[in-house]
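Entry type: protein chain
Record version: 2
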Amino acid sequence: MTDLPRRHQRARGPEGVRHGRLPRRRGIVAATKLLAAVVVVVFVSVGSVAAYAVWDVARSIKTGVHLQAAPGQSAIPQDIPNVSAIPGGVNLLLAGTDSRSDLGGVYNSSDEQDASSGAGNNDVTMLLHIAQDHKSMMVVSFPRDLMVAIPDCPDPKGGTIDGSSYAQFNTALSRGGLNCVVATVSKMTGLTIPFAAVINFNGVSAMSNAVGGVAVCLASPVTDDYTNPPLDLPAGENTIVGDVALSFLRSRHGVGDGSDLGRISNQQVFLSALARKVVSGGVLTNPVQLYGLAKAAVNNITPSETLTNPTTLVQIALALKDTGLDNMVFVQYPAVSDPDNPNRVVPQESAADALNEALVNDQPVKLTGSTGRAAEDPTATTTPAPDPGGEPSPAVPAAPATPVAPAPGATPGATDGGGAAVELPSTITGQTAAQQTCTKGNN
């Protein structure tokens, strides 16, 4: 993403709503009815609360994007009547756009609008894969500076946008919208991806607010004057929320070696902490909180048509209710320096093939590599292996990264009945949700 100095701008809140005065008798009756309604709400069933929540979330959803089906495949029906875990597996792509269009507030400044408007770039792209048996989950993060083949994409205005055999991955969104990002990731991995969404800056802030903030561990202070708002976080545990959470996830200069690959491992520290809070904090068993999280999401995403039913979002979340933190794995798509451009990276083919094979075959995975450039596991005791991946500008040699260490009594990526885990090559970095890793500041 394009990072700029902070611009202070105070948004003006709405004026107070004026109400006409009711006659005294009508006021007493209205108050009595209100009190009765409150008492009824207190004693209604969880199902009724969830039913209201479905309606409340549904009215917030934007018009969905129609995803083009892969050749030989048909659309997946989305009329799922019961609020329970979605049947079968899930492939869901989330593209984080750097666009400032229609965000308001500090993003209305000319500098911010000049940085990115319109569709923007998919500077953060993650693929969520939930296994058919719901016993394992993998989130794959794709480097923004990855040079890949982008296929022909349907033009949102009609027709087809020609593909390219060699293009920067994060241009897929601005090139052809959400469909183009889905088509590119599908081509890279071999997966069919029926669910997708674009999320903006405000969406990240809103979702961190919905869970009451996320507690992250910092091995050293994290400062970054290029984010908006700027970051100045001390070492130790920090509960981050709202715009600070957004800056933490966007920070590149403040974490690891100042690279985009370091930013990915920093995001995985946050995501694993978020997963622990959602699972251990009981969000998945609380329909009110779950729909609150869904509402924060749908208010700030442009979904595929397959996600315009809010119940589908909840059902996808419920598929993870019994997965277990040890079986939730976050990985970075393996990459090395581009021989034609030291400021870009290309897929590391052998490791990428192994990862793609595990995804296509719906196999749980076991990590054998490091936690990445901006993350460390304070419980690790063995000598780390160096990160072999190449890196975009600035070209800073990667410091040795700490190897993945399991939580006490657990194996990274181990399953409890979903089949033997496939060992990923050590060149693939990542961590499980059970690992309480810490971010390394770029000091």
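Comment: The chain has one domain: 61-69+77-439.
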